[in-house]
Write a structure and sequence with these properties.
The complex is a heterodimer of chains A (about 575) and B (about 250). By secondary structure, chain A is an alpha+beta fold. Chain A is built from six helices and 32 strands. Chain A has helices at about 430-465, 465-485, 490-505, 520, 530-550, 555-570, and strands at about 5-10, 20-25, 25-30, 35-40, 50, 55-70, 75-85, 95-100, 100-105, 110, 115-120, 135-140, 150-160, 160-170, 175-180, 185-190, 195-205, 210-215, 220-225, 240-250, 255, 270-275, 275-280, 285-290, 295-300, 320, 325-330, 335-350, 350-355, 360-365, 370-375, 380-385. Chain A is elongated, with a radius of gyration of 52 Å. Chain B has helices spanning about 1-20, 20-35, 40-50, 55-70, 70-85, 90-100, 115-120, 125-150, 155-180, and strands at about 185, 190-195, 205-210, 210-220, 220-225, 230-235, 240. The chains are: A alpha+beta (about 575), B alpha+beta (about 250).
Amino acid sequence: MPLILIFLIRIANAADVAVTLTADKTSVTPGDSIQLQVSAQGTRENVTPEILNAENFDVQATGTSSQMQFINGVVNQQIMFGFVLSPKSGTKVGKYRIGPARVTADGKPYESAQLEVTVEKEASPQAGQPRSSYVVGEVDNKTPFVRQQINYTFKFFNRSQVANARLGLPDFKGFFKEGPDEQKESEQIINGVRWHMTALRYALFPISPGPIPIEPARLAADEVLQDGRPDSIFQGFFAPSRTKRVNLNSEPLQIMVNPLPPNGRPANFSGLVGEFTLTESLGKQAVAVGDSSTLTVKIEGNGNLRDFALPELKSQDFKLYDDQPAFDITPSSKAWIGKKTFKRALVPTKAGELEIPPLDVSYFDTKTSTYKTLGTEKLRISAAGQLAEDSVHHVGPSGETNSKKSIEVVGIDLMPIKRSPSALRSDILSPYERWILLIFIFSSVPCYAVFLAVKRRRGLLMSDTGLLRKRKALRDFNSGLKTLTVEGAFFPEASLLLREYLGNKFNLDGKAITPIDAQRKLSPRGLSKNSITQIETFLRECEAGQFGGLGDKNNSSYRDRLITIVQEIEKGRAGQ
Amino acid sequence: MKTFLVLLALFSCVLGRAAENPLELFRDANQNFDKGEYDAASAKYGSLIQAGIPSGDLYFNRANADFKAGKLGPSLFNYRRALELLPRDADVKFNLAYAREKVTDRVESKESFLQRLVNLSQSINEKEAYYLTAISLLLFLLCCIVSTYRKLEWTLFLRNSLVGVVSLFAMIALHHSLLESPYGVVKAAEVKIYSGLGKDNVVLFSLHEGVECIVAESEGDWIRIQLADGKQGWTKAENILYVRAGE
């Protein structure tokens, strides 16, 4: 029965949050672990606990669970956080105080008490009871040359079933890394004990000379425990499996990287270290001038070929177009073998039996610790015909091509920086610009709709003569009134002004309105009898004035009466 | 007027030296670049950008300085920003391709037909898309107005064609403003990508400096990234350079 120990329960603020830190045991060996639980009660926030003073231990979170209680109408929530605590490699035997666990809720920190943990010396396995699992990290060569491939293999040995394994591999700082290969599993008998072994392998290429450490590999897993009653028929069917969290660390490694010897280093040393083969093949052996044939160069070996670039091929007989090289690396039984394939299109620029210059690649052979050079055979290509006039490779006017040398690119670099002060312009939309453009874009359609509506209304107005006359009746009257003088021919002009106004207003022939037929013509237009009478009277008096000679002294009052009549009609009172 | 001048003076002080004399700072940065002081040059180009001069040329120069300083991740990120603003600039395209060759990881792109169409729309930047939408809309309205008075064949043809042009530019502007996924570039030397939030999850794969990705979502200080080949996973936001929402 596991011993459950509850250490301090300290409530930082009794009204708020209580934090507890519990452990399943208080002593641990370097390969063993302790199950910790941090419980936060009384908070509904999504809090994250922090375990302080655990520098000598690896702390891994295992999960979160929550519990909500409803007691006497009060909701009480408890959140439990699981952790696994295991001593780091190199942690000395002794007593350590772990904690407190700290939870921050509503901006306030709440802490549990500390927990005392004893790290004990790992007991040597008793005879007949060896350890049930362990891990190993090993390399096949601890004194490689710079850029020489070494193989790092992580091995996990176990005799019992494990679950939820989490692997933490070293960072391999100071190495260029390839891999891993596929996980390999096998059974091995070591000192008479059968082990299940799982292995992963990486290729490492040290970048610089000197000592380079490789940190321990770590594996955390749940080990399924045997219940000690192997003869029980219920075992494995009905009895629940018990698990124990184990944390396994491999030993750290120290790699001493040797520099490459300076003596005998060729001028064209490519930087390759290892063992390599170089092959070259040509596609079409005979082509027309201007057509292309593919030259394929393959280099293969156990060195780091990923960044390897093919030496430049110099020839005035060809134009060369390099394709993107293809790189592949595959694990073999002893090492990782890289393969890089370069393809070059060769376009002969003249006819004849043309020679492709051989390629030389120098490398450092780790087997013999000497520099070696790989070379290819001279290849020949037969080119026939002449370069076509419209060939894309033809430069300059006809007849001058052969005397000119094509431009040879000897290096590639970045395009230069921009120096013009125009670089200080803004290439993004300012918020003002954005709003102005958006307002324009979204308002343009409604504006166009308004334009169409106005245009349509104007069209309707223009087609309706009656409406048009009615709208301009008052305007014409007012302009006529300005020219109406109280001297001279006042009466005929005043009469004509009123009749034209009435004609426009009611879409009639205004000049034809007389005092006699005013009643007949205006009555159907909604004018009251009183207004019609006023109009009749005014028209009669105008006739009398025109033909009877009333003189000029009362013309001003007639003018005022005329204005009053029109105002009455405009205000609509005339119809009431 | 007096209040305005006081406010203007205060604003200038806040913006600091970059706003006081951006041209001088720009020339200083160019001189630093010429002398091989790439970090100083990059910082000065960055100050100009921060001071409210977000020009594609400044991002390009900063990317060049970062590249020369050996910072592949920031360099690629700034080239991408420069390309965003100067989508047809041959120099930017060349340098971006050159920097991409230096990236260790190879990510095979799985581009759908729709994605290629979207990429075509990238040949116009957001500012151009907005202005072209407004100009083509203005032309469309003028054609509509002219065709209401005179139904000439060419005005009708132009009007109908402009419907398509306005729609195209409006869609590009909309894509830039709302639909574009933020991109990111790995800035750390090596980054582990996890299956979920937190280092307790399974490590899916590792990425090296300069790998470009799409930032699909963020949660606290973790972000979910997606590569062009479809791989995705979570990592700490501090490992990736990307434009955060609101920046």
